[in-house]
């Protein structure tokens, strides 16, 4: 996640913004329609139409929060796509920041319903122009326009650095056998839930114990098989070979998670961005247990393009 910097906060936390997460939930429009439909919810307390969203619970990761809130308010499990701009606005005497994603509704038609309660009593699927007229707040209109300006259909390519695995100089056996430590195993469990927010993907790992163990909880939850690849394995590859393999995965158009080592993460991200015409991040490296997600879409020339690049930590 991007680091937030600023002046020191008061001890009571009143200078910190209220954190929330939400989504522009969409599904394919009916046959012959010009574009997708988006879901709007009606909140009786405010008598307004908006996108599903809600506050983060204490210690909750924003990826977990957006999936939970969308499901609670719409009855639909979302599959997160590209990151959308965050929205900040005042609430009473504090600021509220809502992080948004484009999210596809799972299921054959994205059917779902808001369970009538004090917070949400109606859900409607609307074409984008009609949704723009229905929305009650200008910042939601701006968000919808950002959604419409980019591709709705994307697929994720995640680059993951393995979790904590102790100190290399304290390990006396072959380095490829060095396992995750207690912290790393906890990170692997958390990563499985976070990566699962993007939907099923093919897990590909360096052929080292610490990398394979990092993606095992994800593989178990999704039923996928972990494939080891020497192109991402320290001691058996170089940056040129690793980048070529990553680009081949991007060209294949299949969601994938690549778990590898800190020594080559920066080159993988830089190489992917250069090949696909995206600005290289100022700091492309990752801490252990962190990951980049490149949301890819088909370009006009048939080549994949990066719609959005985002970074998260367990």
UniProtKB/TrEMBL annotation:
InterPro entries: His_Pase_superF_clade-1, His_PPase_superfam, NUDIX_hydrolase-like_dom_sf, NUDIX_hydrolase_CS, NUDIX_hydrolase_dom, Nudix_hydrolase_domain. Residues 16-149 form the Nudix hydrolase domain. Keywords: Hydrolase. GO terms for molecular function: hydrolase activity. Gene3D superfamilies: Nucleoside Triphosphate Pyrophosphohydrolase, Phosphoglycerate mutase-like. The keyword Hydrolase applies. Transmembrane segments: none annotated. Residues 1-20 are annotated as: Disordered. Residues 1-18 have a biased composition (Basic and acidic residues). It holds the Pfam family NUDIX. The keyword Hydrolase applies. It comes from the Bacteria. This is NUDIX hydrolase.
